[in-house]
Design goal:
The complex is a heterodimer of chains A (162) and B (522). Chain A is an alpha+beta fold and 162 residues long. Helices cover 22% and strands 14% of the residues of chain A. Classes of the chains: A alpha+beta (162), B mainly alpha (522).
Chain lengths: 162, 522
């Protein structure tokens, strides 16, 4: 019997393939159940109009009990969006990826949340401690204990909850 | 099935047609054959989310193990309802849990106390050393007799103020060395605090605060009421004589420097500029008097800037083996040649002088030096009547036999005064005592006086030696030139010599012959 993470991910993948992703989100690669890539772009008027970013999800065997490791891809010509909660190495300071992760969330829900995080941005700038963080950041963003200021993200849109 | 019969109106999780676990996302249809082994379902909150009990318990357990997530562990992510856990928790488990919590808090407290203890031990160690140094300094400066009268070797006799005064002595000595100009002359605290202090002997015998006050300060009443006495009272000396002497000495010293060196040393000018252009040198409180500040001496008039560059160059020159004195310094072109040499010489001397240890040691040795200088003056005074008068040498109190009960007013007189008059009198006595010291102080051999004079003489001597050093070093730099050698050891044929040159011992003919035998072309 496959592990919980594989069974749940295969269900999520089936759903994505049958129902498609929300507008602005595209599945790029999901060859196995450890790393998935998506592209996201912000629809409508925003500071990131016309820009496309690549998101990487990494899952361990206890997903969805443990949160996925989510970051923007910054290699091979990809860049991370300039945003007060996104570091230049692609790491994202978002509470739903840390202490507010819940198994009720899904890969698509995370994508949508990050999309709305970009959409609601008022000013394109890096986090204040970007240089210091990037210099000493661990490879896996889950190993960083981010301090969430509470206003990091808008609430998760309900329609993406199961 | 039983439940449905008992509460037909309200459905439960088991009444759902399709159950979808919000954690693992597996579904179960009511008509599908049950899993093997069957998994229990739960609906723990007030919204529509349901889950396998096993999945939910695993989620809760994992979240509770993570401090950041623990607050949300028992909360439904959708409706926020708190999950209720039912478990078998016997009293003994709860008791053990509570005990563990208490122990944890106690442990934290012990850690905190331990850290505080280490800091306290360290601090009190420093404090003890400072206090011991202060006591030693008092003994050195006021003399052993006054030390025994005022403090004694037994700290149990010391009044509580001593434990603030003594440690502050080394601190003020050191601080005075790191300020230009020093704000607190190093010895003034000693001179101001101790004279009004009552002798230990009487202080210990006194019973009430009021008697205490009367005993201590009554003395001032009976001793001469003249304000100017010889030697001056410590307070007048500290407040009036020392500042005047300092200002006069600095003026004179600046003139002497200019006369001897042709200009003030750069560091002295810097010190003067820092003091607001008073043209004085920080002189009194320590002897290595000139405190060098090299990093930020950029003057307002640009002259200081040139100076700084000259100094920088000199430093480099020193590193490179002191060549190039003849080269005019391009940046310091406006600085006269003589001053350049002076700056260089001072730099040369001060490189070794500004070390931290030298300053600290110098500051902390002040009491010892003044004591030795005082002793030297005392020895000299045996041969000079005038010196003896100047130093106001008196026999020790023990020899005088006049360690008298320092009453100012007789007890009867005191009682006759009204309370208001008593307070007035007491305040008057305190005021006078702080200016003149107690009777004991007035009658004792003024060791502090000759020590202060000795220290002053030492400062002057030290300044003179330093000036001499600076003068000689400046002269050395100014007189410096490269030693000329002849061409001994160099083959004479390799030199293009003037036609008339004729080396001794060789006739021009011989030379010509030798020259012809060699190939041409040099």
């Amino acid at each position: 019997m496959a592990s919980i993470s594989v069974r749940r991910l295969s269900k999520e993948l089936t759903e994505i393939k049958s129902e498609g992703c929300p507008v602005g989100i595209t599945l790029v690669k999901a060859d196995d159940f450890s790393t998935w890539w998506f592209t996201i772009e912000v629809m409508g008027e925003s500071l990131y109009q016309g820009e496309k970013y690549t998101l990487q999800f990494r899952f361990d065997s206890s997903y969805p009990i443990s949160s996925p490791a989510v970051q923007f891809v910054v290699t091979d010509g990809h860049t991370s969006p300039i945003h007060p909660h996104v570091y230049s190495n692609g790491h994202i300071c978002a509470s739903i990826l840390g202490n507010e992760w819940s198994p009720v969330l899904s890969v698509v829900a995370v994508c949508v949340t990050l999309q709305s995080m970009l959409a609601s941005c008022k000013k394109k700038e890096r986090p204040a401690d970007n240089d210091r963080y990037v210099r000493s950041a661990p490879e896996n963003p889950k190993k960083t204990r981010f301090h969430y200021d509470g206003k990091a993200l808008s609430p998760i849109p309900h329609q993406y909850w199961i | 099935m039983d439940r449905r019969i008992k509460s037909p109106q309200i459905p439960t999780v088991n009444d759902l047609r399709v159950k979808l676990c919000y954690i693992c996302r597996e579904e179960e249809h009511y008509d599908a054959p049950p899993e093997d082994p069957p998994r229990a379902w739960t609906h723990p909150c007030t919204c529509t989310l349901v889950a396998h009990e096993g999945c939910l318990l695993r989620w809760i357990q994992t979240s509770q193990g993570d401090t950041a997530r623990a607050p949300n562990a028992l909360k439904c992510p959708q409706c926020g309802t708190r999950y209720e856990l039912v478990s078998h928790r016997p009293k003994i488990l709860r008791l053990l849990g509570a005990g563990n919590g208490v122990l944890q808090r106690v442990g934290r407290l012990i850690t905190l106390c331990g850290a505080a203890g280490v800091v306290a031990v360290f601090a009190s160690g420093i404090y003890v050393v400072l206090t011991a140094y202060g006591a030693w300094a008092i003994k050195q400066f006021l003399g052993e007799e006054m030390f025994d009268v005022l403090l004694t070797d037994n700290p149990a006799n010391w009044p509580w103020t001593t434990f603030i005064n003594l440690p502050s002595i080394p601190l003020s000595l050191i601080l005075s060395r790191f300020q230009t100009p020093a704000l607190i002359p190093s010895l003034v605290p000693i001179l101001l605090v101790w004279p009004p202090a009552p002798p230990i002997k009487y202080r210990l015998g006194s019973t009430s605060a009021l008697t205490d006050l009367r005993l201590q300060y009554g003395a001032a009443d009976t001793i001469n009421s003249k304000l100017w006495t010889w030697p001056p009272t410590p307070a007048i000396f500290g407040f009036v004589v020392v500042p005047i002497v300092r200002v006069v000495y600095r003026r004179l010293w600046t003139r002497l420097q200019v006369w001897a060196l042709g200009a003030q040393p750069p560091s002295a000018r810097v010190a003067a500029a820092r003091m607001g252009g008073g043209g004085v040198n920080a002189a009194w409180e320590g002897w290595p008097v000139v405190i060098r500040i090299r990093a930020n001496i950029i003057g307002e008039d640009g002259r200081g800037q040139g100076q700084a560059q000259v100094q920088g160059q000199e430093q480099q020159r020193q590193q490179e083996g002191e060549e190039g004195q003849e080269q005019p310094a391009p940046a310091g072109a406006e600085v006269p040649e003589q001053e350049q040499a002076l700056a260089a010489a001072e730099q040369h001397i001060s490189i070794s002088a500004s070390s931290l240890g030298r300053r600290l040691g110098g500051a902390l040795l002040i009491p010892y030096i003044s004591s030795r200088m005082g002793w030297l003056l005392l020895s000299l005074s045996r041969h000079s009547h005038i010196l003896r008068r100047i130093l106001a040498v008196r026999p020790p109190l023990s020899v005088q036999g006049t360690m008298r009960w320092p009453y100012g007013i007789s007890p009867g007189e005191w009682e006759d005064l009204g309370p208001l008059r008593q307070v007035q009198k007491a305040l008057g006595l305190v005021w006078r005592a702080s200016w003149r010291g107690t009777r004991t102080w007035a009658e004792a051999d003024p060791v502090w006086w000759r020590n202060a004079i000795g220290l002053g003489l030492f400062v002057v001597a030290k300044d003179c030696v330093e000036l001499l050093h600076l003068w000689l070093a400046t002269r050395e730099l100014e007189s410096r030139h490269v030693k000329n050698r002849d061409f001994a050891g160099v083959d004479i044929r390799e030199l293009d010599l003037v036609p008339g040159f004729s080396p001794r011992g060789q006739s021009p003919a011989q030379m010509q012959a030798r020259a012809q035998s060699l190939p041409r072309g040099l």
